[in-house]
Amino acid sequence: MEAQRGGPGADKGSIKVRGKARASAASVWAILGVVLFLGNGVRRVLPVALQPFSQGLGPFGWFSYVLTAALFAYAEGYRGFQRRFSPLVVRRALLLADGQQPTLRQVFAPAFAMAFFHAKTKRKIASYSLVTGIFALAALVKRLPYPYRSILDAGVCIGLSWGMGATAAIYLQAVRTGRVPDADPCMPEEP
C-alpha cells in the first residue's frame, strides 16, 4: 500500500492510499493495542456496572440503567467510535503496513493510530483532549454513590465495548476486502 499526497482538489494534507489494505505486524499491533487500551477501561468499570444485578434497583433505577446504556451505545459507541474514531484508527494503522513508516511509529503503533503523535495539530489536540476529558470524567464518576456510579459505568462499558468491536471489525473488513476506510488520517504536512 502506498501513501501519497492528494492531487489538485484534494484536501490539504489528505492522503490517497493506492493499493490494497493489508495486514502487517505493525498494523495488527496498532489495532490490538487500541483494543486492549479500551478493554482495560471496560475491565476497570465492569464490576461496578454489574452491581445492580446483585444489589438490585427500583423500577426507576432499572429504567435509568437501560436508558443510559442505550444513550451511551448510540452517542459513544455508534457516533463516537464506529463513525469517527475507529475508522481514523484503522486508516492510520493501515498506513503502517506500507513498510515505509519509521521504526518509532511502528513500535508505538497504538499511539500513532490514535493520533497522539505525527498528526495534524488539531487532531493531536482533539486526541489528547478526549483522553484527558475521559480521565477527568472517570475521576468525577468514581466519587458518585451507588446506584448513580453503576448506571453511568454501565453506559461506559457499552460504549467502550462497542468501540472495541467497531475498531476490530473495521480493521478486519478493510483487510478482507482490501478497501481502506474513507477517513482522513490527519497526517501532518511533510516538509
Task: Give a written overview of the molecule.
- The chain has helices spanning 25-49, 51-55, 59-95, 103-107, 109-113, 121-142, 148-177, and strands spanning 2-5, 15-18.
- It is mainly α and 191 residues long.
- The protein has a two-stranded antiparallel ribbon.
Labels describing this entry:
two-stranded antiparallel sheet; 2 strands; 191 residues; 7 helices; mainly alpha; disordered N terminus
Protein topology:
Blueprint: E1 2-5, E2 15-18, H1 25-49, H2 51-55, H3 59-95, H4 103-107, H5 109-113, H6 121-142, H7 148-177
Antiparallel strand pairs: 1-2
Helix pairs in contact: 1-3, 1-7, 3-7
What is the strand tally? 2
| Radius of gyration computed on alpha carbons | 19 Å
Strand content: under 5%
Q: Main sheet, how many strands, which sense, barrel?
A: 2 strands, antiparallel
**Major β-sheet strand ordering:** 1-2
Order of helices and strands: EEHHHHHHH
**What does the average pLDDT come to?**
89
Structural class: mainly alpha
Q: What's the overall geometry?
A: elongated
Number of helices: 7
Instruction: Give the % helix.
Output: 55-70%
Low-pLDDT windows of residues: 1-18
End-to-end CA span: 22 Å
